[in-house]
Amino acid sequence: MNYPGGVRKSDKNSLKEIHCQNRGMSLEAEINDSNDYYRSIDKAFIYKKPTPIQITKVDYPSRDKALIKEAFFTIPSTTDYNGLYEGKYIDFEAKETRNKTSFPLHNIHPHQITHLKNIHLHGGISFLIVRFTTLDETYLLPTKDFLEFLESDTRKSIPHSFFQEKAYLIKDTYRPRIDYLKVVDSLLEVYQ
Predict the structure, then answer these.
(1) CATH 3.90.960.10 matches 25-191
(2) Which of 1, 31, 103, 174 gives 20 to 30 Å between its CA and that of 110?
(3) Alpha-carbon gap, residue 129 to 168, rounded angstroms
(4) What distances in angstroms separate CA 5 from CA 1, 10, 13, 127, one per listed residue?
């Protein structure tokens, strides 16, 4: 039987494509949803940072339908999220990996590490949120522990066991989906 768009319900390949297509955005989407929830209940004001781009060519087929044809990154973006919670500045990067045993360090850029370090050194709260997608585990790794790993180890990845030992497992909840501020509450004691 032919279905609209030529897709059959039992076509396993098309279901796999759809699943893989959305996999990279799931953590970001869940954090964005959590941040929307935090703002709606007046708990925290944390936002996704836009990627800085310079637009060089625009097509104007009509006044209300401008189409960007060419753009480039002006400067390297720092981290994904920043904002305020309990009077403290928060800044963090969110990453996903399908690797079951470690988080590859090539997933985070040197300028992002420097940025997280600077926020930490100046009294802000900075961290990584890392999701091991195949294990369905999401961790919050404080910058302090992340930097200690970088200074004491020459590996090109952070072992999953390091996350289990040093990071905080973020349990999935209904609303917000990723309640990372519950972990930040325990970090606030350190920053006060």
Answers:
(1) no
(2) 31
(3) 9
(4) 12, 14, 15, 44
